[in-house]
Amino acid sequence: MPQPLIPVGELVTSGWNEYIRDWKANLELSIRYLLAAVIMFVAVLVAERIPLAGGSLLVIVASIAGAAISLHTSILLTDVILKRDKGTANAKHDDAVGYKLFWSMFWISILVGLATLGGFILFVLPGIWLAVKFSVAQLSLIEDGKKGTEALSASSELVKGRWWGVFGRSLVIGFLVGTLAMIMAWAIMAVIGLFIGFDKIVAISDVGMSNSYMTRPSPLMEGIQNMMSGVIQVVLMPLGIIYSAKIFHSLKKTK
Tens digits of per-residue pLDDT, 159-184? Predict the structure, then answer.
């Protein structure tokens, strides 16, 4: 019979302590998220100054490049954090791991995304159920070498009987990381407002919230918003992965 998972208080505290302890080593990897944001920032600015077809193509290429960099970075970060959480001292990242697992991670992400989307289309609750059920599929790939549907099955088996436990802990962690992200966003916008004027902060906040191109802000404002998102990823993505790794290892230990 499955055993109780790591207590919420212990999860939050131990994860935060690990985040503070390893922030410098994690930053050396997570800074790559900012590179993806910079590529998009430059592409948006250049696209505004060239013909529409060329500009659209440039933004598409930049989006693909940025997504590839982010995925590769996430693999490396997750691999290192999983090793540290298992007790491996001075775990180092290996770029080759990111390249080796890149397409497998991409495929698993597609499978999880499609399954979850299908659940949401049918009804919201099945989508949430599937999202939790497959929440550690990517970690199963990186640590245990599970690929494709095998990773989804491994995640499902680990979560089986502990769905509510995983769901509750995910809510707590999501609230914590989400709150920190909001605080960071407000702080960054306050600093930006000192230089460009607080009246333009509203334009930055509204990027992506309207489907009408007539109401979209300037490329500069959109670029700034992308950079903000990149900075937040750099700082907080390691924290989210640390918590995911702890839940994953708790699931394995208490199976």
Answer: 999 999 999 999 999 999 999 999 99
Q: Mind listing the pLDDT tens digit for each residue in 205-231?
A: 554 444 444 445 556 677 777 888 899
* d(C-alpha 220, C-alpha 217), whole Å: 8
> How many CB atoms neighbour CB 150 within 10 A?
15
Question: Which pTM value belongs to this model?
Answer: 0.89
**H-helix segments, 86-208:** 95-122, 124-133, 137-144, 148-159, 163-196, 201-205
Q: Would you put residue 208 in left (φ > 0), alpha (ψ -120 to 50) or beta?
A: left
